[in-house]
Amino acid sequence: MTRAHNIPVLMYHHVNASPSSLTVTADNFEQQIKALAENGYQSVGSHELAAFFSGQPLDKKSVVITFDDGYLDNWVYAHPVLERYGFKAILFVVSGLIGEGDVRPYLGQGLQPPHCPNHHDAKTQMFGPDPDQVMLRWSEIEAMLSANTFEIHSHTHTHTRWDKVCNNPQDKFNKFYDDLEKSRETLDARIGQTSSHLCWPQGYFDDDYLQAARQLGFKHFYTTDARGQNTASSNPEYIYRFAVRNRRGNWLRQRIWLASHRYWGPLYNNWKTRSDDKKRK
């Protein structure tokens, strides 16, 4: 085994037939996973990543695949592809938006799959009166767990940015703490497990958020920051992820190579940071 210098963590939201800034089409997603499989990559889960941060070696061609929020299309389009190629992903769910009901069809079963809208429409519906139209059900989560295509972890219970709605720091702390605690209680009640892995809603966190999460037992925090590498000696409270674009498999393979390269990766990250800083001026 050639030991990994760092582990790239991929960030997805949607896989469906309505491409947008946060959506990969079903065909491109299959081409991406197929390219990884054909080039010897393996997906690793939260336990392996945590062990890597503690000094355990991982193979050089290891990646972590993550999905945010818990959209229905993760079951309809991503699950069958992951199952077909023997890959698995980490899914951070907004536990308060997961619904009840029977398992719905997924692509490839010979049945008409449910409509899955683009990100803008899905985000509107997920916080509307009927989130079940765009969000997963517990029955589908249980099926994905049984198939070992997804792990389930916390993305809070409500996905609320308490820093934007609270008038003082103590109120913000209390509301965020309660939100996280409810998420842990819900996951424990519905799937019989919780974990130390948390994905920040919208990628935002501050010292109060960190303190609340630590008190509840979270140790591994996933950001939306792509400009760094997850090495064995890096901070598990700041896990870098890069957003996967709606492109073919070769693009993803090249992007992973760039993200994980010991020399070119940091150079690219520094260049990207300077470029974005110039745009903001």
Q: Main attributes?
A:
42% helix; two-stranded parallel ribbon; TIM Barrel; 14% strand; 281 residues; 10 helices; 6-stranded parallel beta sheet; alpha/beta
How would you describe this structure to a colleague?
The protein has 10 helices and 10 strands. It is an alpha/beta fold and 281 residues long. The protein has one domain: Glycoside hydrolase/deacetylase (TIM Barrel), CATH 3.20.20. Strands 1, 4, 5, 6, 7 and 10 form a 6-stranded parallel β-sheet that branches. A two-stranded parallel ribbon has the order 2-3. Strand 5 (62-69), helix 3 (72-85) and strand 6 (89-93) form a beta-alpha-beta unit. Helix 1 (26-38) crosses helix 9 (249-260) and helix 7 (169-191) runs parallel beside helix 8 (207-215). The chain is globular, with a radius of gyration of 18 Å. It starts with 8 loop residues before the first strand and ends with a helix.
Draw up the topology in text.
Elements: E1 9-12, E2 14-16, E3 23-25, H1 26-38, E4 42-43, H2 46-53, E5 62-69, H3 72-85, E6 89-93, H4 119-126, H5 138-147, E7 150-154, H6 162-165, H7 169-191, E8 197-199, H8 207-215, E9 220-222, E10 242-243, H9 249-260, H10 264-280
Helix pairs in contact: 1-3, 1-9, 7-8, 9-10
CATH class: Alpha Beta
CATH superfamily descriptor? Glycoside hydrolase/deacetylase
Number of domains: 1
Q: How large is the count of helical segments?
A: 10
Strand residues, percent:
5-15%
| CATH-assigned fold name | TIM Barrel
> What value does the Rg take, in angstroms?
18 Å
Structural class: alpha/beta
Mean pLDDT: 96
Low-confidence stretches: none
Please name the CATH architecture. Alpha-Beta Barrel
- First-to-last CA distance: 46 Å
SSE succession: EEEHEHEHEHHEHHEHEEHH
Number of strands: 10
**Largest pleated sheet:** 6 strands, parallel
Described by the principal axes of the CA atoms, the overall outline is globular
Helix content: 40-55%
